[in-house]
Task: structure prediction
Amino acid sequence: MRAVSVSDYRELARRRLPRFLFEYIDGGSYAEQTLRRNVDDLRSVSLRQRVMRDVSNIDVSVELFGARWNLPVALGPIGLAGMNARRGEVQAARAAHAAGVPFTLSTVGACSLREVHAGVQNPFWFQLYMIRDRAFMSDLLDQAEEFGCSALVFTVDMPVPGSRYRDYHSGLAGASGLFGAARRFAQALTRPHWAWDVGLLGGPHSLGTVAPVLKGNTGLEDFFAWMRNNFDPSVTWDDLAWVRERWRGPLILKGVLDPGDAERAAQLGADGIVVSNHGGRQLDGVSSAVHALPRIADAVGERLTVLADGGVRSGLDVARMLALGAKGVLLGRAWAYALAGGGQAGVAHMLSIVEAELRVALALTGVPRADALNRDAVEIVNTP
Result:
């Protein structure tokens, strides 16, 4: 099939990935109520169509953290993304650079900071969790600076990982040892292109950034054990000062849903926040990101750069987020689907689709500049 939308790339990813990897990308936590809310609430936002306005010069560029980008989107951090295509994070970073948008490397990506830097040789963003081993965290911050990362995306909504039932059903989690490996191997055999391109030729199959502390234990069970044992449930706002002291570039807190938390982030020296519920992968039952966005933008939008993610599947969704107060939008599943469906070319094509859809949204709302979208462009918001 020829993809013409993010939904098409989702279907391509479903066809091309082993089940355990597709479900890892596609699923959310528990009953997936928040995962559905992210999509449904965003689509319930009605854009206000305006006519007879000069929209002959559409500008979709945006300034974020002192840099001008071609689109008001960034590729957000995706764990294990490098397993969706051969050395996947490098391919995605190259597509992002060509499109003139930021790429964010996850702490738990398959490719290391060094590999992405060597593959792109241009600045990118780095995502970091609060980890119990502060010496390891400090080393990661040093590496991020060494390899030219231009912003730090500090994820704050994961003191403990949520439970994702699909991962247990697919055999990604819970099925340990030879039985779990055999189950995943059998799934891989049903996807021969992936088995050849990634399984055989795409090694090493490890978490590139975390590999030094895993000490050669590179199985998926080791990855999940590391997550359980090393995320820090004792983290408080005091720890943000520790990060701020060690990171001199833009600091973006990802995972904020409450205006009070956004206020605290502004007080403690963050440069930006991402209004996010981790794509519905953490606390199921919380509000959608788009529902939380307007109040947070009202509270801190003059002091922080407010970004948002969650449920974005089109350029129309990007326009909705911008109209409700975001200065930029992080794409997550959208680029993971495209990477799985078409590698670097797929990610580049997905970004071109989003751009084309955004341009139409701007023209038909009568707002020729993406950075000028505001709530005047929204007619109805049917969020609970």
The mean pLDDT is 93. The domain at 6-381 is CATH 3.20.20.70 (TIM Barrel). The first helix runs from residue 6 to 16.
